[in-house]
Each structure stands twice: as C-alpha cells, then as structure tokens.
Amino acid sequence: MSKPEKQSAPQAVRLDKWLWAARFYKTRSLCKDAIDGGKVSYNGSKGKASRNVEVGALVGIRLGWDEKVVEVKAVSEQRRGAPEAQLLYEETAASIAKREKRALENKSFGGRIMSDHKPNKKERRDIKQLKKDIFSDI
C-alpha cells in the first residue's frame, strides 16, 4: 500500500502567519501588534490578524518610515529562508517609486535634522504639522 499523495489545494493562511512567513516581522506577536496598531492594511482596508490571505491580494505594510505595498504571489504558513520568503510576494511598482522618492527627499534634507536644543512650543507644533502632512497621503 502506498501513502496517499498530498493535495496541492490552496491552503487558508492567516495574515499574521503570512507576514511572519514572508519575514516582514521576526515573531508572530510582532505581526499581530503591527496589525492591531493599524500598520498593516489588506486590500485597502484595515487588516485583521485572523483574515485569510489570498493570492493576488494587496498588503500595505508600514515598517518604520517606509511604506510598502506588496502583492501576494503565494501563501505559506512555514517560515523558511529569505530567498524562499521573497517568492511569496512582489512589491508594486508604485510602491517602489514612492519609497525611492521619499529616500531622495530624506537625502536632500541631509538625513536627520539635528538641533542643539529641545524644541519649544512653536517648533513642536511645526513638527506635528509636518508629520501630519507626510503621513496623510499613506
């Protein structure tokens, strides 16, 4: 008697497991915290950790100052090496262009703008307004 062959039917994988398997975050708890914190969107709407990932879906991920929009190419619930993890997704062309544009803007400002003093009330308001302007288009 031979063993039954495994079927290659599409499997249901949770969003937090997929993000972990695709190596965007080191642990599943970090994935869940990022999703609950609003840093991950799924097809343009707020992501939920328990949502099943489908091939062709667009996942928006905010990592630090960078925002990536990736298209799901394959699903996996096992974390493997980085070369295999990169086969699970592909970053969209618009996302790449936006990240490159933002990197050029940061370079033109000379990286970080350092100050020799603590910001006063007016400067704090200006910083808050600048952050609001930057992240309003995300």
From TrEMBL:
Keyword DNA-binding: yes
Domain RNA-binding S4: start-end pairs: 13-77
Biased composition range(s): Basic and acidic residues: 114-127
Single GO MF annotation: single-stranded RNA binding
Origin organism lineage: Bacteria, Pseudomonadati, Pseudomonadota, Gammaproteobacteria, Oceanospirillales
A Pfam family reported for this protein in Swiss-Prot or TrEMBL: S4
Stated name of the protein: Heat shock protein 15
Transmembrane region(s): none
Species this chain originates from: Marinomonas foliarum
Homology family: Belongs to the HSP15 family.
InterPro entries hit by this protein: HSP15 (IPR025708), S4_RNA-bd (IPR002942), S4_RNA-bd_sf (IPR036986)
Any single biological process term in GO: cellular response to heat
Region (Disordered): 108-127
Keyword annotations from UniProtKB, A to Z: DNA-binding, RNA-binding, Stress response
